[in-house]
Amino acid sequence: MKRQLYLAGLCFALLLNNACSKKYDNYPEPDATLTGSITDLATGKPVQTEAGSNGARIRLDELSWSATPTPYYFYAMQDGTYRNTKIFSAKYRISVEGAFVPLIQYDGAGNITVDKSQTLDVKGSAKVDFKVEPFLNVDWVSDPVYNSADSTITVKVKFTRGNSNPSFQNNVTDVFLFVNATTYVGNNNYDNRYSNKISYGGTAGNSQIGQTITITTRDKLPGKRSYFIRVGARVDYGLKYYNYTDIKTVAVP
Amino acid sequence: MKRKIYTLVAVLAYCLTACTKLDIPPMNVIQDKDVFTSEGGIRIYMARAYSELPLEDFRYSQTRGLNFFWIISPPSANTGEALSRDLGSSTTETFNPAYWELGYRLIREMNYFMQTLPQYAKNFQDADVKHWLGEARFIRAVTYMALVKRYGGVPIVDKVLQYPDQKPEELKIPRASEEAVYDFIAADLDYAYNNMQATSVSGRANKYTAAAFKSRAMVYAGSIAKYNQVTLFDGSQQRLCGIPATKANTYFKAAYDAALLLEGKYSLYKKAWAAGDKQAQMQNYINMFFDAGSPENILIKGYHYPESVHGYDAYNVPRQLMGGNGYSAEVNPTLNFVEMFDGLPKNPDGTIQTLDASGKYIMYNNTMDLFANAEPRLRATVIVPGDEFKKEKIEIYRGIYTGDATNGISRLLPDGSTSNYPTANIVASPNGNQTPYKLPDGTLRNPAGKSGVFTADGTCAISGFTVRKYLVPDKPTAEVLENRADQTWIEMRYAEVLLNRAEAAYELYAAGQTGANYLQDAFNAVNQIRDRAGANLLATTADLNSINIVRNERRKELAFENKTWWDLKRWRIIDKEQNGTLYRVLMPFYVAQTGKYFFDARTDERNNRYTFDTRWYYQQIPADQISKSQNLVQNLGY
After folding, report:
1. Which terminus of chain A has a lower count of CB atoms within 10 Å, N or C?
2. CB contact under 8 A, A110 and B236
3. Which residues pair with B611 in a beta bridge?
4. Does B294 have pLDDT greater than 70?
5. How many CB pairs under 8 A join A and B?
């Protein structure tokens, strides 16, 4: 009886030993790194964006196994750079979407007229930079000013067209002063008690191009802390992404 | 022994004749021959199809879906028409499974019907067969409309797909262009118009129903061609999102022509209407939604307790008439909505006037005094503070002002402030269990009205208003329960056809088209609507100087009928209207010292801001559908 038990145990152990293959996986893990930046073609500065689903995103089409794969997306950081350390080593067509003239353009019949996407083999570490033409450049005219009388912040900015392509001179629809208590500030993340905006109907916004725009926060900002502010403006094109200034920190006493 | 063998052989031989055929259809499954050989069978097939028809009715909301029983986050709280305690920000459709999957089931059923009925045509009159084939096309078109308004171009499936007989590659049909889908809808509805009969039983379509839906579909297509800013091409030159701007006039003309077909066939409901009599005009407007014989109804969806029910009354009744389930006042019209109507005192900028020239609140003996001259349609759509419903005065006020009122009362908060009301000089109630306040004359009075406004409990008129449209005026409170309501949903009524016609005509006029006197026609249509509503008429065609006049008329007339969200989307204006937007409310206060009321117009006290994500103009194609068919291209931004 005991012997039978041992034999059964031995058989079971043998089975267990062979149950799993020693290989961890059939495919290599995603070990490649893709980094880069999205910069303004004219000024060379990074194109500011917001974190998350309404900001700039990188589109990867993995061409190793299909000419029309389901695209893989990831988002850029709000300073206009991106970095993804978990990419499969493969051949990719890489492009980027955001608040700038699209890299891939179509004519009215659906034929591709412009294609600035890049195709390359990503292995180890690759750096891909994109030079784009933003819809708008939004710039600080002067540093934000804290008004101690009514506990608000006043900013002066101006926006100009970032490109001269006649297809992308859409109407400017609004300028938005975003205020937040963390460094992540933009249309996706702002404190709506204090943020403020100016909306333009029809072509009214276009006459403000190049003018100094003054916006003041709403309500009273509680003191003894810092606020992170930036201004966004957008045109009536496509998904209406915002173009942004960089972020400024204002310490409220 | 031998005899036994013979007997056995004989028995076995006899058994051989037992079965003539083993391959018989299962007896417990209804066969085509059972359905397609009698008028009753066809009726049953169609009854199911109509029950699945994608109508955004009492049982729809963006967060919960179609044919859902528990609608407490109402669609009107997503458009600026109303505020609701259960929906406080912009949303797109989030229900699961998404409509994509549901739509193609119904399309398959209609394709099957169209392919199968001709084989059994000999059982019926030719005219009936033609009518039913047209009806199937109508249902298919309405279903494609539900798809295209959500997703843009979708795969066009016009025959029954066979799986597993067909190869998977043949079944992975790519998306057609948005334009092609609208053209497909127009072709189906034209077929329906040409083949269907002029009349039908209530709840089923006839040829004019098809024409009415065509006017709706084409005015959608026209506005997308004109206003859409999103472009998406696939790899084979199909424009999945967006329609070339050059097609706008073609579609508006098609909408206009389709609307003309209904002229003289249906009319606006005016049974209780009387010229110059605001009370009669209001009553007429209320009755319209409950009169089964209304000449305005083009397509309705019937309900009947206990087989097919909804809970509209239970969820939306004013707080003081709350039923046993404890729900009430889910739909509270915003001041922004109320201000669109005529007959209210207004400031030069169109907002409601609550202050006199010196900046003090205007005092009223009654909350109803502010609405003394209000447009009848407003009071038939919205219960304003102090109005009567179910023979009861609906009491709505926010609190009692206990301060000194000798020299009038200045604003409680500065203009535009989003802060809470000051606690000094105001008593309020957090919920329905009120502690009465002793007035200077010694009488006791509750700090808030019976229907609100309560500061901590959202089951009240949080905007100062509560909805009236579609609430049954004589339903006993004992029956105001979930799954107990069975009033009819009017999906398409003649007023919408007139508004489609007015919108298409004005767009054609604005584009310089000269086929007819479009401006005059739009003017007539708008004035017909306004006349019935008891609103101020447009004096001359010169007053009709903006598309917004036609659009606002539509928003007022079709409010709380779950059409506005789609309208704001197809006009591509909802992202401008909802961009960090706070909607406005109107708060009545009782003044302890004088026994009078004043109104404070302010922004939503909850500070719920609405921001529409521009990606939502085209909804996300469900990821599980793309996994099934990699030929489906995702919409932009997802």
Report:
1. N
2. yes
3. B579
4. yes
5. 62
